[in-house]
Amino acid sequence: MDKKTQLSLFQKMYLIRSMEEKIVELYPEQEMRCPVHLCIGQEAVAAGVCENLTKEDYVFSNHRSHAHYLAKGGDPKGLLAELYGKVTGCSRGRGGSMHLIDLSVNFIGATPILGGTIPMAVGAALSSKMQGKGNISVVFFGDAAVEEGIFHESLNYASLRKLPVLFICENNLYSVQTPLSKRQPNRKISSVAIGHSIKSYREDGNNVVKVYDLAKKSINKIRKAHEPIFLEFLTYRWREHCGPYYDYNLGYRSKEEIEKWEKQCPLKKYKRNLLSKNIVTSKEIEQISHNISIEIEEAVDFAKKSSFPPRNELEKFVYSE
Amino acid sequence: MDKKTQLSLFQKMYLIRSMEEKIVELYPEQEMRCPVHLCIGQEAVAAGVCENLTKEDYVFSNHRSHAHYLAKGGDPKGLLAELYGKVTGCSRGRGGSMHLIDLSVNFIGATPILGGTIPMAVGAALSSKMQGKGNISVVFFGDAAVEEGIFHESLNYASLRKLPVLFICENNLYSVQTPLSKRQPNRKISSVAIGHSIKSYREDGNNVVKVYDLAKKSINKIRKAHEPIFLEFLTYRWREHCGPYYDYNLGYRSKEEIEKWEKQCPLKKYKRNLLSKNIVTSKEIEQISHNISIEIEEAVDFAKKSSFPPRNELEKFVYSE
Amino acid sequence: MAKKRELKYTEAIKEATDLCLKEYPTSFIIGPGVPDPKGTFGTTLKLVDKYGQDRVLDMPLSENGITGICIGAALTGMRPILVHQRIDFTLLALDEIVNNAAKWHYMFGGISSIPMVVRTIIGRGWGQGSQHSQNLQALYTHIPGLKVIMPSTPYDAKGLFISSVVDNNPIIFIDHRWLYNITGYVPEGTYQVPIGKAKIIRKGSDITIASTSYMTLESIKASKIIEKEGVDPELIDIRTLKPLDSDTIIKSVRKTGRFMVLDSGWKSGGFASEVITKVVENTFTNLKTSPQRICLPDIPTPTTRGLTRYYYPNTKDIVQTVLKMLEWKSNDIKSVISKSMKREKNIPWDIPDLTFTGPF
Amino acid sequence: MAKKRELKYTEAIKEATDLCLKEYPTSFIIGPGVPDPKGTFGTTLKLVDKYGQDRVLDMPLSENGITGICIGAALTGMRPILVHQRIDFTLLALDEIVNNAAKWHYMFGGISSIPMVVRTIIGRGWGQGSQHSQNLQALYTHIPGLKVIMPSTPYDAKGLFISSVVDNNPIIFIDHRWLYNITGYVPEGTYQVPIGKAKIIRKGSDITIASTSYMTLESIKASKIIEKEGVDPELIDIRTLKPLDSDTIIKSVRKTGRFMVLDSGWKSGGFASEVITKVVENTFTNLKTSPQRICLPDIPTPTTRGLTRYYYPNTKDIVQTVLKMLEWKSNDIKSVISKSMKREKNIPWDIPDLTFTGPF
Ligand SMILES: Cc1ncc(C[n+]2csc(CCOP(=O)(O)OP(=O)(O)O)c2C)c(N)n1
Ligand SMILES: Cc1ncc(C[n+]2csc(CCOP(=O)(O)OP(=O)(O)O)c2C)c(N)n1
Ligand SMILES: [Mg+2]
Ligand SMILES: [Mg+2]
Predict the structure, then answer these.
(1) Which terminus of chain A faces fewer neighbouring Cβ atoms within 10 Å, N or C?
(2) ipTM of this predicted complex?
């Protein structure tokens, strides 16, 4: 991996983490009035996968979408303004955190109905194939989406038609407060894809280099062999399912478990790694951090200063012209 | 296998075949005014599986349900009267061929929305478990039902909860006129169940002894180990998808293919086998055939002579008391 | 003058599809059995020979998934036409249709849109029963962002279908199975019938009768009977159920002062209630009598013809209701009915015409 | 006299569930998060401690499958209670609910039945957006064989919930999220509130206002304002949307001659149209003015409070419409509004009360 890529991976993760921390800080002001599903602790998956994508590649996402949006290159201003419900938001305020879009980087959309965007990614891949484009389609979803029938319907079709789509399951062990063991039999999620005759791999999702490598191999394969691939990444959500706080107090997961995963912080681990191997200097890290914090402050400022959509926008866009 | 069982297998298959042939004969009279999905050629699956069931075991079925109903011990009179839309039909004429029921033998219901009854079988198994009953639940469905998300949702839950349910996929290679290759990737259907961590086997569905043996082993296992099992049986529908006629003329399947499968007639093969091994005499066969033809004639007579539901029944049963 | 070209309804739909596939290279059609030798009751017959398997597609039985796939294709430059042989099956896809397709343009601030046609079929009779003959248009007409089309003639079927493919929104295009054998004038080549416009098919002054799809045929039959009795009805074929052309209906009711609506769906919470409410809200002071609706009773569809006989409303019910609204005496109504219904009696009530022999 | 026991709506639901689990050993409750530490907004909190994991069940995210599983359990002796946190998710299960549960008893000739409660939540506001705050009751009220319940008080919530569990039919039981914090008198122990009966919550003579669920609170607020102006409305809480107690409404309108209906769903093809149609069909000659409906505009739900502010109808809209129906002059209406709405202005429009802080 060249240095540029390494820096970019760090930069992506750092941007995501900083954005989420900023939301944590501002959310209690009660001005972002929409549910937020933060991805702190899960940054490596989005960063490692998207680092391998071109602007032409399509990305689809779910309710926990900030990381995917930012990793694909989505505009931070558009994200924050959207959370504030402003007309300058990426969906003109109509969507909120759960409905992100940035067509300038082919981030086609994120929506919160579980599994809902999985077939869309397959459809976008079909569309690329029909139009003779060379791009691929990626969809991010959680471990619970695998329980939805539509997930299987999508995999079956992708496999049948050998479509260029990459399925990314972020297995963070929980759906809201319900552990995997209450929802699925004891087997690897990745083994489900094999039943649909799709090549399938499982990897540590908190190690951005491993994520990057596996994604790279898989994406190359998809581009060449024109067939879908399924990747399961093991990772962990630090904060509450929805909202800015920790939820240790709820008792559905043990303190030890959380601490174990916090030690696996994808960002710290990678930073340590970069520094200890002398790939980057602390100076360079500081520079990146600094630039990102400025970018985020600007985005906050932009979002706060923007106005709400005007009243006469209420009826607009029910139908397309 | 004892002689009683062997005779019973033959008897079941012969009854099913005769009933279907009788429908073929009478359908053109345009008095059975409902779609019929005949199972001629597929009798061995229903017979071989149901031979292993007790009256207490639950059976659920789909649009192609006559065989399942009869093999479980459903009343032939109730079936034929139902096809004629008579008030004496198993569903009081309200259901027709696609909605069979006979609670006296725990044939809980057949409905034609693909995949619709698969979760019901799982739910009945859950119910048995909750009530501490020892019975199992069986559901018959076709190869296309596997494409429905609800199939996977059902398998996931059965596997998660280790429920006593037997999934029977009758793979007859087609959904209406569409071959499997246009609908699913090239892998064994039975391998899908493995993805859900369910034990899964594939067998020749036109050999009633093989069906019986595999079903027996599986059902014993379910009763003892309290876990679901999935069986795929390869078989073939001789007639058109819906209706009494052959459909060679349509050209979606080759004459050779059909002839190959006709040679694999489950009934003829088994009869030959029984006779050649001197397990039964032709006399015994004749006796069975004779009794069945009388039973069917009586059912026809019963159905034709019965009356339609009276007008004042139209509003009845929208709600249960 | 040369005789005008007549096509069957099924042929009109097929011709429209053919033209769209030809003119819009990003369009494709997909559905279970679409390229098969029966071609969706003939409406897609042999299109695969002309356009190939990449544009005329069969599909797995995965209604929700394939809907999502079509949405994904639509979001990235294609114009999918998705076909379901029965509206009952679309219940499996309601999530993608309602949660995603209908709202996408709005919830992403107008940034992208979903040009997609979901074509599906409603029906009745011949023992299809509760799960294979529902008329669920009301579910769709309730959802903002969808357009719902139900033509009643081959001419409109072709023109509205083309308009639907051209439209940039998700369209629910519903055929009634009992229209498939009817014939009518259909011009060659491409033409559009505007979405959102009802059609006055008979001018009249005594009562406004608005109807959807197959029920328009019943309204015409009823009209022929009451005309002879000196009644002068205005008939409106609604054609687009959503967005509803209430202006045309309201204008007519302001003139006639009486209103009746016919729909093939269930009564309670059905499409007919919406039309009546719209009419009442806008013509209250013009109304001479209470508006009436003729729909299915609130009962699942029975299979046996012993009961469907009483389940489906027919010409007689319409005639009776109209004459009652015009304050005819009940004896006079009876005599009109017995006079006019004789011929009808010989056609079985569970088939659209005598050529129909099942099983679908 | 001792003060009557007050419970929150959520507590009333929980107590009803508790009593049902105790009294009916074949009942069980299942839903995503039902036994989790938040217990479905508190409505199922700690029930798992009392009844164990075999009767208080979590589930995979498989809405249609689990619905079918509940149907299978119901057909073999159980009484399942299935909980969905949002009605939007039930679109995934509409196939099993509509194709199977609703029709089973009928299509099998009354031989077996499905005693099952599907409890689900509708809501509004606080940025849930298009896919997480739909009010889809109209879809269910159209389907024969279903019963649809929407209480507005803790008392009714408990009594109707128990009636639903006891009932032998599939019931769609809908809570409005904005009712969860309201309190009211709730007796201890088991009692039933009859399904299919509306409730007159204020007798009056000038106008009949019928409403569903949360909109009943709005009707009460509006009533308090117009009372002071000498208007005497009759308020009816519909409670059961299907089967609809049209008798109670019709009787009232025959008396008052004016009718207005409030519903939290979309306008077009919504539940309100059915109520209006039923009223017009039965009270046409009693009506002094056109009935009115207050519902959501036909627009997907925007997320931003910049737009929800104008999206949701409120007390002001009701007051205005009532006074217009009573032919008040527009200046007089304006002054009532400005006088009475001052206090309201300080409560943000996107939360039910000031204790609410999101994120759900
Ligand atoms: C169809 C549907 N059912 C239920 C929900 C409610 N819900 C929102 S997020 C969520 C958890 C999903 O878990 P997972 O897929 O593992 O993603 P994670 O939140 O862990 O990232 C649930 C159940 C939903 N959004 N959609
Ligand atoms: C949800 C749904 N979609 C489509 C259909 C139409 N349909 C009826 S039978 C059938 C074929 C099913 O094939 P398979 O499951 O293999 O059973 P087979 O008819 O071969 O026995 C289809 C597609 C249906 N009944 N339900
Ligand atoms: Mg998760
Ligand atoms: Mg098949």
Answers:
(1) C
(2) 0.98
